């Protein structure tokens, strides 16, 4: 219960400090009666100003110097982003955009000493310029909470730098290249290829047919065996597949082919 109560007080204090910062710009400064000085630095800041990169943690180093005769305790560190808009209905001309992370520390700072506190936060906003307000909630030795302003300046919200070696960028390029290639192939196969005559080429079946016909051997007619009842003669090559012992010798002898002279004419018989 005590922690929730203190957290509620801290959040209200952050908003009060932010509103006091706006009032300071209008000429109504307010400061607590406490000898504690707070300064803020950004190690990763550039020469041209402080930039908050979306999606990346921003580190702020808060230096708290206790000049009180008694120790103080740093309880919370938080902040908010504001925008200055003259057309805003707010009488101060500013409105809150985003509350930042509130971090609990409970670091006690002895009298006359200082302490450095690292505060990290991240943003996810549209690139623009906003007012960054950071505040520190302290607790005195009597247990009284006091809020001090740590930072109140204009910062720039920027997007992270893109690299060609980013995996997401590489995947996007490959996807776009695939879509472009598929579209070009569809256009070529649908309209462009029909404008050119296609040559007929022998496929694998034709080459196989040529090889089979060229490699086939002619069969000697003497080696052919007629089979009764078959559609055609059964052809066997090489060794004979029948027994010749029961066939008469006269049938086994082949008749000699008579040669006929081309220029000779049969003599006519005179009656």
Low-pLDDT segments:
21-31
How many angstroms does the end-to-end distance come to?
156 Å
Secondary structure category: alpha+beta
Question: SSE order in H/E notation?
Answer: HEEEEEEEEEHHEEH
Mean pLDDT value: 75
List the helices and strands and how they pair.
Elements: H1 2-26, E1 36-41, E2 51-53, E3 58-66, E4 72-84, E5 94-99, E6 103-109, E7 114-121, E8 128-139, E9 145-158, H2 167-192, H3 204-215, E10 224-225, E11 234-235, H4 249-252
Parallel strand pairs: 2-9
Antiparallel strand pairs: 1-3, 3-7, 4-5, 4-6, 4-8, 8-9, 10-11
Describe the structure.
The protein has 271 residues and is an alpha+beta fold. The longest helix is centred in the middle third of the chain and has 26 residues, at 167-192. A hairpin with a 5-residue loop joins strand 8 (128-139) and strand 9 (145-158). Strands 2, 4, 5, 6, 8 and 9 form a six-stranded mixed beta sheet that branches. The chain has four helices and eleven strands, in the order αβββββββββααββα. Residues 21-31 have low confidence and may be disordered. The chain has helices at 2-26, 167-192, 204-215, 249-252; strands at residues 36-41, 51-53, 58-66, 72-84, 94-99, 103-109, 114-121, 128-139, 145-158, 224-225, 234-235.
């Amino acid at each position: 219960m005590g922690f929730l109560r203190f957290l509620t007080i801290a959040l209200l204090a952050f908003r009060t400090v932010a509103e006091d910062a706006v009032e300071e710009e209008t000429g109504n400064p307010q400061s607590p009666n406490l000898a504690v000085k707070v300064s803020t630095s950004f190690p990763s800041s550039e020469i041209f100003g402080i930039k908050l990169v979306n999606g990346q943690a921003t580190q702020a180093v808060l230096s708290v110097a206790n000049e009180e005769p008694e120790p103080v305790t740093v309880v919370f560190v938080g902040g908010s982003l504001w925008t200055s808009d003259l057309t805003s209905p707010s009488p101060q001309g500013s409105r809150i955009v985003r509350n930042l992370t509130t971090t609990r520390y409970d670091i006690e700072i002895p009298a006359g000493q200082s302490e450095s506190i690292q505060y990290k936060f991240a943003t996810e906003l549209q690139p623009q310029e906003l007012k960054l307000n950071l505040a520190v909630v302290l607790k005195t030795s009597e247990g009284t909470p006091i809020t001090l302003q740590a930072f109140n300046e204009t910062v720039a919200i920027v997007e992270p730098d893109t690299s060609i070696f980013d995996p997401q960028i590489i995947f996007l390029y490959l996807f776009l290249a695939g879509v472009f290639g598929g579209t070009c192939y569809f256009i070529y196969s649908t309209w462009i290829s029909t404008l050119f005559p296609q040559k007929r080429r022998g496929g694998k079946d034709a080459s196989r047919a040529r090889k089979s016909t060229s490699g086939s051997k002619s069969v000697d007619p003497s080696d052919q065996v007629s089979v009764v009842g078959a559609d055609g003669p059964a052809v066997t090559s090489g060794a004979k597949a029948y027994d010749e012992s029961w066939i008469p010798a006269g049938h086994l002898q082949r008749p000699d082919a008579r040669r006929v002279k081309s220029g000779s004419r049969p003599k006519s018989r005179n009656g």
